User: Which sequence fits this backbone?
């Protein structure tokens, strides 16, 4: 992290990992939202909050990505956001934003952002930013033919910062499409 800081590089870190007890099960989040899980993500926050070039934390990445996960996981994502923010308030030398990195699915694009930005009593349960994992732009497309114009339009009234948390072109798909 020190070398990254010296190079002027900042990090937005996902507190989750694919290891057991280190992420939410999108279909049964209640089974993985445990004390052990929370301790693991708090350790990540604790370790990285001391670095000034830790820009923010992702409370999750593509946890909601289909009908079943959309019906089961959003409340748990919001709980993780709340828990991380509470931990930061109590244990970090500075406040660090907490957000979510989402699959760019037309079915959940707007509803999920609205749900995650909403707070009932305290802004502690609302995301501070929203990351979008988009794979729409390919080859010779334009802002309009790629679908990016619709993507931008979807977030124009969103009250939090939005940015691309993943974007890439699948080389296989691009080669397949351009060969025909």
Assistant:
């Amino acid at each position: 992290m020190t070398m990254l800081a010296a190079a002027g590089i900042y990090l937005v870190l996902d507190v989750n990992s694919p290891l057991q007890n280190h992420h939410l099960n999108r279909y049964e989040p209640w089974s993985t939202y445990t004390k052990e899980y929370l301790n693991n993500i708090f350790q990540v926050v604790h370790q990285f909050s001391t670095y000034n070039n830790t820009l923010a934390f992702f409370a999750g990445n593509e946890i909601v990505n289909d009908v079943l996960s959309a019906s089961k996981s959003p409340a748990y994502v919001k709980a993780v956001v709340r828990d991380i923010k509470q931990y930061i308030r109590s244990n970090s030398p500075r406040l660090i934003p907490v957000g979510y990195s989402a699959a760019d699915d037309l079915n959940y694009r707007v509803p999920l952002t609205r749900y995650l930005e909403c707070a009932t009593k305290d802004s502690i349960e609302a995301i501070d930013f929203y990351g979008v994992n988009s794979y729409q732009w390919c080859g010779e497309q334009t802002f309009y033919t790629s679908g990016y114009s619709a993507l931008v339009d979807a977030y124009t009234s969103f009250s939090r910062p939005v940015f691309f948390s993943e974007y890439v072109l699948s080389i296989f798909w691009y080669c397949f499409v351009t060969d025909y």
In short: The helical segments are 2-6, 29-32, 35-49, 67-72, 74-91, 109-117, 148-154, 171-178.
